[in-house]
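Troubleshooting log. The previous run stalled partway through. Resubmitting the same two chains, unchanged.
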Amino acid sequence: MNALIISAILGVVMMFSGILLKQKTAVRNVAIGGIIILLLANILEMGGTVFFTIDSRGMIAFDQFALLFNTIVFVSTLLYLLLSAKEIEKVGVNYADYFALIFFILCGITLVSSFKSLLILFLGIEIISIPLYILTGSDKRNLKSNEASLKYFLLGVFSTGLMLMGIALVYGARGTFLTVPDPLVTVVPNALLITGMSLLLFSMAFKVSAAPFHFWTPDVYDGAPTVFTSFMATIVKAAVFIAFIRLFDDAFEGLQPQWRLWIAVITAITLFVGNITAVFQQSVKRMLAYSSIAQAGFMLLSLYAMNTEAKEGLLIYAAAYCLATIGIFAVLAKMNDYTFDGFNGLARREPLIAATLTILLLSLAGIPLTAGFLAKFYMLKATIATPNSLWLVIFAVLMAAVSVYYYFRVIQAMYFKEGNDATTGFSPFFKWTMVLMASLVILLGLFPDLLLNWLYF
Amino acid sequence: MPINYYIFLSIALFSIGIVGVLTRRNAIIIFMCVELMLNAVNLMLVAFSKMHYKAALLAGDVNGTAGTDGQLFVFFIMVVAAAEVTVGLAIIVMMYRNIHSVDVNFLNRLKH
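Second attempt completed without errors. Output:
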């Protein structure tokens, strides 16, 4: 409850800071201070210190899983702001409002990671989505940004409509919005419940950009300002995954035979489409958009398996994926040329940046000793524990092998090609934050228990 | 009236909304169709709410609070829909200023 209320207050504080503070540095420092306060409040709540106690009538439950995920999100956002806060200020004159919107999105994320009622799920998803539509279109003069935001808005609202219909039908079948129904009342799986569940499945698959519903993703990620693409593709996506797994774990556990095959098919298509299309991209930003679809395919495996290992794995996956992708996007935002050629010869000019970037890319590709490897390993281990899933595991491994190709293209461009200077320069602070990020990725890859022990704290 | 009538009406409205979203090219009409979908859901929720209320009453629940959460949900949908209208119309206006059209066929420049 700490993080929920403090993040909402901080959003309002950021809005006023735009009026009261005239200096860009001051606004940025308020934002970074705010996220640190948020992180500390959340860690205190993990230790049992709760500042606010509100009777939500069982609609919200801040269990250890939700709190640990929130911590991951806040740490990622802190690193994101440290790396990219200056880029946010370049997007437009209303930079304080962008920080405010980011805090409101964090408020939505704390809701979707802890909901026990479909009402809270709906509100959380909307609190995340509406600021995102604004952030996507924040580059007002740029036609690509306009298009991306209109496309995202129309499709996002459409999927919200489907989700609401799903919620209404589930309510019709069960008579309650709580995701954990009364154990005394047994509901036979009837047509209402199954249809509602399928609609919820489709709309959530849309929100995490799983394959048959992924068409908006590359365009939106490409058109949005790069700093906000970074936020959208990492932290928000991971949060919606947590909502997805919570929903299907709590509300539809009894219907597993009905949805498991759907999920398996969606996973396989997502892995295929994401990885194969990413191979043919010429722009690194667009490649990262497809790579985020491909990584979503891996995260969907946790939904398919739905056991303890899958949940642990999803947390590690969220951490590994967020850290690596935020770092890569932060470097990309400083590039003048977004194609693969833009990275030519980076290693000679900026050896430290190139080295950290290589570690992050290796983590995304799933090379051992990095967090990405361990995350993929947990996912596959969880999947193989479920019956009749060997084909999916083999397919996922093959697709992970394909992904190595397009991640290594960036490394190859950096180290083995000559190129002219195409960057705007990196400050020493930026470099050391990147080093911190890369060391976190390796640390998590060597000792995953550092993270997972908190789950049973 | 039996609940079936409400459910069929609601599903019909919802389908009109979906077909509109998928076939129309004008951003504002697409948006209206989405609102139609949301209002179909509102109707459905109120109908189910009354259904659960009546069922609880027949089962002997004298308090009569069963099913009220469905109607509460309707208010939340209205609020969220209003927020969406605010943001959505702003985005459409921003688009109109740049290309002087609200036709979604223009939205294909990002493909390349």
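Takeaways: DSSP finds 18 helices and no strands in chain A. The mean pLDDT of chain A is 89.
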